[in-house]
């Protein structure tokens, strides 16, 4: 590229050579308020849709202070009666316990396994490269279908699981004692890949230099993981944890298909409880009160986790910068 | 990456073999149910509960669930459910795109008052307990005749599709240098034409990812059609569960065949957008 | 026909100032250069003129028409972006033809479009790239395409944001020489943004210096060079930077640099006794005289019969300032050398001189600077920029140079 301009380069005509001649276009000023309104106009349809969705939310919150249901179509205001009734109800507290157990255990195991799988896949071994392609398959299958698959596999009469594990007919995977563990296992089967691909993306975006330095230092893999990789991966892990924990708090699909909340109350999560009250028993107000409590739990959890994410991101940015 | 095999490094160290074996174990666990589902779908009625791995495979079950004979046997109208699912999901995604793209653009380009509130409200739909909305909608839909209709389903599926579309696309629009649209404005194009000519083509991967992911999640959704539809607008996810719940003889092989068919669209779509999947699944929070 | 008037233009980004009350009057056809370090508000100024950002206050008038609230596509302004802003999915040809196809820059049939594109690409030497995509070009090529997209169309104002910054040094000076002669540029009001003072001096009909969002000085290249408004402008022009020596006015004389400087206050220079000042010496204005002369031999070196010369002070001839010092560092720049001369005081005097005339490290030298090239600034804290008072040539200087 040593081209220089020829001395007598053909002049490029400016406006004087405009075929239309010098233009004196009438310019149309746009008033300030219209320029300011631009983003609002673009967002207006989404805003309307949001309001349309918030409306039933509001109605639901309203239901929770009524005694509304199919059996009582002309409801009265009952204040916090639904809530005090729920809070004094052993079933509700069982649901809270089941939901918390489910959310904490499933999220915890998925996170640990997901991070481990991501670290192993990041080694880029032949086995890893082949499996990476199919990693997300369980994640993309509808949880309901996963529930159907596993309910067939768990079947104590002819289920393949007992056969493969050589247990005969001896284990009833969905008994009152086992059911919660079994549904957690299904959740782990579906969602561990979610954590894994997020963390894997994080691993691959990490800067290489610190690790090369630690290689030179001869640091062990555990030391490297604990002091270098994990702190930088925290933001990615936390995004995964937020998604998983919040989803698990309102868990419904595969649990409902596998056990419908049973046996007894063994797997009756809060959203399954609300479903029973409001849709099966048609007690809208009681179901809404259930949901309102769950919503408060989700909201508080979200606030906490998102602020933790912000901190982790700032720290990781600092350690990378 | 430090853990990558370096040239000259031994490939078959004990720890490398242990790591591969661990991965192998996970993938046996991960893929076994899927393989087994496909095997079950290939079995005859006689073999469905009697054999595990040795049988004479047949594709008949797929034909059966997709024809009237499937409904005669199981009283589940699977073909109609498939069609309903396609309509619901396509409609829901279309609405989300039409409504969501301008909003994502506005939120990605300008910091206007309330933009964050709007964005986080839309995101909260993703995390809110579904029944909080469904219970009142169950009552409202029954009153205004939207119960068990495609329109009603498309509306409520916005809870699933809107947050995805808006958040994924906002992150793509934020990544797009503003100078490009500015150049188009100074070339003499209006804002709308600058958007269509410059911005839109450049976020096409984002639109594709958001569209397909929204479709997948709408397709996989269960609780909305479970509560808000009966038979007319019932979807594949609801239909699948009915295979098991019905009285009389259980057709596990037909259930499996239907499950394979229902699981196929999301899997195929996911594979086509694999490069953008992480960014989509994390709503733009993690960029790969 | 297309003058450009900017009045009180201000823009803040949150709590940081983009530009602050910028006023500029640019004549029709003038080539105006905005010079400033990064973050000074150069690009903000250009984008405000183009209407691409909402300003907080002030107005832009193009060709006598107030552009407040006028959409960018209605302003008939073309801009070359520092980021090139080439449409990644379009070929070079389509990028260049884009402004001709919008219908707002005039009406062009296909043949006329092609003719204009060919003229531009021929001039810029990118004819062979027409079918490429921007990602297949080098940065220098991209920059020329970006420039071409401006030149291909008529406009009331051309806005050029560092259009040469990514070219290699050789091409850059060639382009600099030719840019102004391009037919389109020479006829069109242009605002050219750069952080390179040589570009500013070589290209500008006038130069405006921006600092922290404010215009510090506007003037012809000779004006800003010869009479910089303050130490900031003085430092912005010239590489190496101007040397600033602390001095104090006392009893009709200016003393500084631990006695190395001792000259009479020239008539017409507005300083008072006891006032602290700074003397600015451009490295290339300083001549190395009497190199090798021992300091005590300097008593006979100058014709100046000043009886109160300090121990280190040279005898300043009527037309110049003389100083004695000892060579510190010598750095070869090629044919020239950069010499740092310790004249006493904390600040060494930087001199750029020809290699033949340079003394060796540690050798004593005598320096001389013509009086009109010794700039006198108000004193200030370290890092503080202070306005210029005048030069040692006194009143005659300002009259000559104005």
From TrEMBL, chain A:
Region (Disordered), start-end ranges: 1-30
Query: What subcellular locations does the record give?
Result: Cell membrane
Q: Which domain of life is it from?
A: Bacteria
Transmembrane spans: 40-66, 100-122, 134-153, 179-203, 228-246, 287-306
Q: Cite a single GO BP annotation.
A: transmembrane transport
Q: Which UniProt keywords apply?
A: Cell membrane, Membrane, Transmembrane, Transmembrane helix, Transport
Q: InterPro entries, per this entry?
A: MetI-like (IPR000515), MetI-like_sf (IPR035906)
Residue stretches making up the ABC transmembrane type-1 domain: 96-305
User: What GO CC terms are in its UniProt record?
Assistant: plasma membrane
Q: Does the keyword RNA-binding apply?
A: no
The UniProt entry lists membrane topology as: Multi-pass membrane protein
Which family would the database say this protein is a member of?
A: Belongs to the binding-protein-dependent transport system permease family.
List the PANTHER family hit by this protein, alphabetically: BLR7065 PROTEIN, SPERMIDINE_PUTRESCINE TRANSPORT SYSTEM PERMEASE PROTEIN
Q: What is this protein called?
A: Carbohydrate ABC transporter membrane protein 1 (CUT1 family)
**Could you read off the lineage of the organism from its UniProt record?**
Bacteria, Bacillati, Actinomycetota, Actinomycetes, Jiangellales
TrEMBL record, chain B:
What Gene Ontology cellular-component terms does the record carry? plasma membrane
Membrane topology, from the record: Multi-pass membrane protein
Spans traversing the lipid bilayer = 21-42, 81-106, 118-141, 153-173, 194-219, 250-273
- InterPro entries from the entry? BP-dep_ABC_trans_perm, MetI-like, MetI-like_sf
Q: Which residues form the ABC transmembrane type-1 domain?
A: 82-273
Q: PROSITE patterns, from UniProt? A: ABC_TM1
The cellular location(s) given in this protein's UniProt record come to: Cell membrane
Q: Which UniProt keywords apply?
A: Cell membrane, Membrane, Transmembrane, Transmembrane helix, Transport
Look up the record and give one Gene Ontology term from the biological process aspect.
transmembrane transport
Give the family per the record.
Answer: Belongs to the binding-protein-dependent transport system permease family.
Q: What is this protein called?
A: Carbohydrate ABC transporter membrane protein 2 (CUT1 family)
UniProtKB/TrEMBL annotation, chain C:
- InterPro entries, per database record: AAA+_ATPase, ABC_transporter-like_ATP-bd, ABC_transpr_MalK/UgpC-like, Mo/tungstate-bd_C_term_dom, NA-bd_OB-fold, P-loop_NTPase, Transp-assoc_OB_typ2
Q: Which UniProt keywords apply?
A: ATP-binding, Cell membrane, Membrane, Nucleotide-binding, Translocase, Transport
Region Disordered, residue ranges: 298-319, 380-402
Name one cellular component (GO) term.
ATP-binding cassette (ABC) transporter complex, substrate-binding subunit-containing
Q: Has UniProt tagged this entry with the keyword Protease?
A: no
Q: What spans are recorded as compositionally biased (Low complexity)?
A: 298-310
Q: Does the keyword Transport apply?
A: yes
Where does the ABC transporter domain lie?
A: 4-237
The membrane spanning regions, by residue number, are: none
MF annotations from Gene Ontology: ABC-type transporter activity; ATP binding; ATP hydrolysis activity
Determine the domain of life of the protein's source.
Bacteria
From the Swiss-Prot or TrEMBL record, give the protein name. Carbohydrate ABC transporter ATP-binding protein (CUT1 family)
What taxonomic lineage is listed for the species of origin? Answer: Bacteria, Bacillati, Actinomycetota, Actinomycetes, Jiangellales
């Amino acid at each position: 590229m040593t081209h220089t301009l020829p001395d007598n380069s053909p002049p490029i005509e400016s406006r004087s050579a405009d075929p239309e001649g010098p233009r004196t276009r009438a310019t149309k000023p746009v008033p300030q308020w219209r320029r300011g309104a631009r983003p609002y106009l673009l967002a207006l349809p989404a805003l309307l849709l949001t309001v349309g969705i918030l409306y039933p939310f509001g109605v639901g919150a309203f239901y929770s202070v009524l005694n509304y249901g199919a059996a009582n179509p002309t409801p009265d205001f009952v204040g916090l009666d639904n809530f005090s009734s729920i809070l004094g109800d052993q079933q509700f507290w069982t649901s809270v316990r089941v939901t918390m157990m489910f959310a904490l255990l499933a999220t915890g195991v998925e996170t640990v396994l997901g991070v481990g799988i991501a670290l192993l896949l990041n080694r880029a071994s032949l086995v890893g490269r082949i499996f990476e392609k199919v990693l997300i398959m369980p994640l993309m299958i509808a949880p309901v279908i996963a529930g159907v698959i596993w309910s067939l596999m768990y079947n104590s009469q002819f289920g393949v699981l007992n056969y493969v594990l050589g247990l005969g007919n001896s284990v009833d995977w969905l008994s009152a004692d086992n059911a919660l563990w079994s549904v957690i296992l299904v959740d782990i089967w579906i969602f561990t890949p979610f954590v894994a691909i997020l963390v894997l993306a994080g691993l691959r975006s990490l800067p290489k230099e610190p690790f090369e330095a630690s290689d030179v230092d001869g640091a062990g893999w555990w030391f490297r993981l604990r002091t270098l990789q994990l702190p930088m991966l925290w933001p990615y892990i936390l995004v995964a944890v937020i998604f998983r924990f919040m989803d698990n708090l309102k868990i419904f699909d595969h649990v409902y298909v596998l056990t419908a909340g049973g046996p007894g109350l063994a797997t009756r999560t809060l959203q399954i409880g609300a479903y029973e009250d409001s849709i099966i028993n048609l007690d809208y107000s009681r179901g809404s009160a259930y949901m309102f409590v769950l919503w408060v739990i989700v909201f508080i959890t979200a606030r906490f986790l998102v602020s933790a994410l912000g901190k982790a991101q700032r720290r990781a940015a600092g350690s990378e910068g | 990456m430090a853990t990558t095999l370096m040239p000259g490094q031994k490939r078959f160290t004990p720890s490398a073999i242990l790591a591969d074996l661990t991965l192998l174990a996970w993938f046996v666990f991960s893929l076994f149910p899927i393989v087994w589902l496909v095997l079950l779908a290939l079995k005859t009625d006689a073999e469905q509960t009697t054999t595990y791995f040795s049988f004479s495979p047949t594709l008949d079950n797929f034909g059966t669930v997709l024809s009237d004979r499937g409904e005669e046997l199981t009283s589940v109208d699977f073909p109609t459910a498939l069609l309903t699912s396609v309509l619901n999901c396509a409609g829901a995604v279309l609405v989300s795109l039409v409504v969501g793209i301008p909003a994502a653009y506005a939120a990605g380009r300008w910091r206007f008052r309330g933009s964050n509130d709007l964005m986080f409200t839309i995101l909260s739909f993703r995390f809110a307990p579904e029944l909080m909305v469904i219970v009142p909608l169950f009552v409202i839909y029954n009153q205004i005749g939207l119960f068990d209709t495609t329109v009603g389903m498309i509306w409520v599926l916005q809870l699933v599709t809107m947050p995805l579309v808006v958040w994924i696309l906002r992150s793509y629009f934020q990544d797009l240098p503003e100078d490009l649209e500015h150049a188009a404005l100074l070339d003499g194009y209006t804002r709308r034409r600058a958007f269509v000519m410059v911005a839109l083509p450049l976020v096409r991967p984002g639109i594709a990812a958001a569209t397909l992911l929204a479709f997948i999640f709408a397709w996989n959704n269960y609780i909305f059609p479970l509560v808000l539809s009966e038979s007319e607008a019932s979807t594949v996810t609801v239909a699948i569960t009915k295979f098991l719940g019905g009285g009389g003889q259980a057709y596990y092989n037909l259930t499996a065949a239907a499950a394979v068919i229902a699981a196929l669209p999301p899997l195929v779509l996911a594979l086509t957008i694999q490069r953008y999947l992480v960014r989509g699944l994390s709503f733009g929070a993690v960029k790969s | 026909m297309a003058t450009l008037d900017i009045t009180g233009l201000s823009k803040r980004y949150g709590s940081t100032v983009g530009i602050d009350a910028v006023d500029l009057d640019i004549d029709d056809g003038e080539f105006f250069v905005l010079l400033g370090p990064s973050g000074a508000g150069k690009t903000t100024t250009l984008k405000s003129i183009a209407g691409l950002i909402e300003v907080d206050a002030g107005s832009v008038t193009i060709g006598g028409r107030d552009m407040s609230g006028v959409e960018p596509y209605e302003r008939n302004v073309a801009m070359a972006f520092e980021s090139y802003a080439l449409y990644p999915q379009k070929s070079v040809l389509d990028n260049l033809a884009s402004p001709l196809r919008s219908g707002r820059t005039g009406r062009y049939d296909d043949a006329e479009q092609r003719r204009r594109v060919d003229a531009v690409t021929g001039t810029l030497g990118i004819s062979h790239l027409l079918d490429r995509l921007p990602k297949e070009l080098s940065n220098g090529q991209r920059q020329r395409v970006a420039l071409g997209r401006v030149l291909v169309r008529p406009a009331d104002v051309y806005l050029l944001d560092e259009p040469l910054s990514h070219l290699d040094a050789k091409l850059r000076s060639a382009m600099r020489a030719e840019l102004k002669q391009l037919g389109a540029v020479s006829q069109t009001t242009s605002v050219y943004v750069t952080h390179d003072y040589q570009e500013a001096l070589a290209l500008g009909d006038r130069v405006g210096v921006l600092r922290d969002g404010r215009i510090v000085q506007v003037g012809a290249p000779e004006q800003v060079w010869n009479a910089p408004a303050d130490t900031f402008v003085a430092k912005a022009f010239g590489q190496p930077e101007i040397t600033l020596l602390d001095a104090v006015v006392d009893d009709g004389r200016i003393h500084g640099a631990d006695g190395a400087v001792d000259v009479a206050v020239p008539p017409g220079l507005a300083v008072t006794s006891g006032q602290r000042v700074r003397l600015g010496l451009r490295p290339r204005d300083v001549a190395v005289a009497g190199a090798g002369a021992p300091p005590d031999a300097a008593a006979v070196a100058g014709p100046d019969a000043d009886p109160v010369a300090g121990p280190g002070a040279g005898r300043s001839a009527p037309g110049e300032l003389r100083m004695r010092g000892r060579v510190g560092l010598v750095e070869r720049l090629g044919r020239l050398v950069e010499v740092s001369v310790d004249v006493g005081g904390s600040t060494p005097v930087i001199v750029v001189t020809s290699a033949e005339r340079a003394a060796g490290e540690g050798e004593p030298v005598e320096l001389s600077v013509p009086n009109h090239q010794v700039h006198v600034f108000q004193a200030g804290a370290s890092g503080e920029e202070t306005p210029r008072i005048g030069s040692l040539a006194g009143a005659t200087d300002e009259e000559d140079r104005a």
